[in-house]
Request: fold
Amino acid sequence: MTRQISLGSVKVGGGAPISVQSMTTTKTADVEGTLAQIYALAAAGADVVRCTCNDQDAAEGLAQIVPRSPVPIVADIHFHVEMALAALDAGVHGLRLNPGNLRKPEEIKLVASEARDRGVPIRIGVNAGSLHPELYQRFGGATPEALVESARQELAYFEEVDFSDVKISVKASSVATMIAAYRLAAETFDHPLHLGVTEAGPLPGGLLKATAGIATLLAEGIGDTLRYSLTADPVEEAKAGRQLLEALGLRERKGLDLIACPSCGRAEVDVIKVANEAQEALSALNIPLQVAVMGCVVNGPGEARHADLGIAAGRHRGHLFIQGQIVRVVPEDEMVDALVDEAKKIAAEGVAARLAARDAHAEEEAAADRALLLDDKGLDANRSNERIARIRRRGES
Ligand code: SF4
Reply:
């Protein structure tokens, strides 16, 4: 178990829920624009938001943003010690220092002392792309060992001024390097770790790279907070972080989890179109439900019986089901509306009440649809039994 730090009201490490972070892309001096983005990030699942503090105007902006933000604010400091001190004056809940950029020991210790006196934690944010040149040379590149050594050196400066309210990141754009670096960091430090694949890039590749690195480590029990670094609207970063944690069962579901079958030759409807329409209509409701869109009534309700709510298509009708039990049969063009309507009712009345209110004839009608479909297509759609019989006959002759 790692130590625990507090970024304002958000605890990180020491068994606290894994938190999601993202970073604003607005100029921090643009207070209203930055706050609007922070609100959007918080709504999408960010627990903590980072803003750059790169000049005096940004620091002054932070002084107005911090008290109005719905989530704790971390200031990102690159080269200037004055900006770290100004961000502390602005009242930020955390600082991020890059040891490769802010290199003078006396400046590092000054910031750590000021943070210590105010009870503000610092992230030692090592980045393979901006590793200190001396370490790059000594280790023959930005190796996992070099990244961890950079964090260790910074931590040693902090300890000289009796400051240990720290979390650590050792990011690289190479997934393999990042995974190895974090594994080594987890063995080396007992401070909380902030996970990320730096410069992961645009969607969808960036999402894949970041997920490969972050999910691998989380599955090993490594990591206390995370950020997806995507070349995209930061709202996508917050959404991705939240969805990953929900998918791994590390955070409770906050919104919609839409599952859909991949579709196949049995599909009775355009699953991709219906799933997209359902995703759009249901996302807006912000109801914590798992909803399934299944292409056929023969296999759909059974395969998705774990979903809270779902719909399966068959013979131009939709079979609406709750936890695998058919509750209504609706015309195909009303499938999405029926899902939305039922999702709202489940949110208001609960699953048990909605199951009790099901249409008494729904299961009968659904069974008739299934029987007709099986007649149409045959139980052995791939004619496997027929082929096997032929093979056996050949074997006997
Ligand atoms: S639910 Fe039906 S359409 Fe969808 S993949 Fe399964 S068998 Fe195919």
The first strand starts at residue 4 and ends at 7.
